[in-house]
Every structure is written in C-alpha cells, then in structure tokens.
Amino acid sequence: MARRLYSFALIGLLFASVHPGHATETGATAHSGHGVAVDQSLPASTQAFMEANDVMHRDMAITYTGNADVDFLLGMIPHHQGAVDMARIVLEHGTDPEVRKLAEAVIAAQTVEIEWMQERLRVLGH
Average pLDDT of 49-62? Predict the structure, then answer.
C-alpha cells in the first residue's frame, strides 16, 4: 500500500484551517484505530480532514536513511498521498465546481507522481 504523502498548496490550506484544538477527549471517540479523539459534533468533512491529516503526518515520520534522494522520496510519498486523500474528501463533501475540478486534477497528477516516486525508490535500491 502506498505511503501517505504530499499536499497541494491550496488543498493544504484547507487543512490549515482545521485547528487541532477541535479534537477532544470528552464525548469523543477514537477514529480509525489511530487513538486520536475526534469531536463527533464536527461536520463529517472536518472529521475526515482531521483523520487524513493525522495519517499523513504519521506516515511522514520516516526513518531517515542518510541518502537525501531516498529520504526526500520517502517523505514526499505520504505528503502526496495526503493531498490525494484530502482531494477525495472534497469530492465526497464539497460542492464548488472549481474546487472539485482542482481536487480531480490533484488526484490525477499526484497519483502519477506517487507511482513515479515508488518506482524511483525501487531503482535506487530502497
């Protein structure tokens, strides 16, 4: 399974607007087995963005190899996957045709880039 990764700047702004202070311990449940409490009163899209952000940051915490090329690719793959995941959330919950168009473009472009980076890691012996 592809590692979670890179986000497009505009989509990243969506995450920046989701303040981590919205996660609560009281009246919340853990999501996706990550042990992060999410306030269930938040909109479904916000909960999904928070979870995607959590997964992306967790997966970006790579074990560094000392090889700048390999380390860059290992970090960028989950960063790009994070953008793809956020774009899918927009397609599920968003309504603005222009934002949806951007989300579709992000999915198309970054999926190809993820595949390229994974292949490059194989070529580099990692």
Answer: 97
Cα distance between residue 8 and residue 93, in whole Å: 18
- Give the CATH number, domain containing residue 63: 1.20.1260
Which one has a higher pLDDT value, 51 or 9? 51
Distance CA 1, CA 14 (A): 25
Domain of 69 in residue numbering reads as 9-123
Q: What is the dihedral of CA 20, 26, 31, 35, to 10 degrees?
A: 80
Mean pLDDT of 96-119: 98
Please give the C-alpha separations between residue 7 and each of 16, 63, 88, 106, 126, in angstroms, as whole numbers: 11, 20, 12, 9, 23
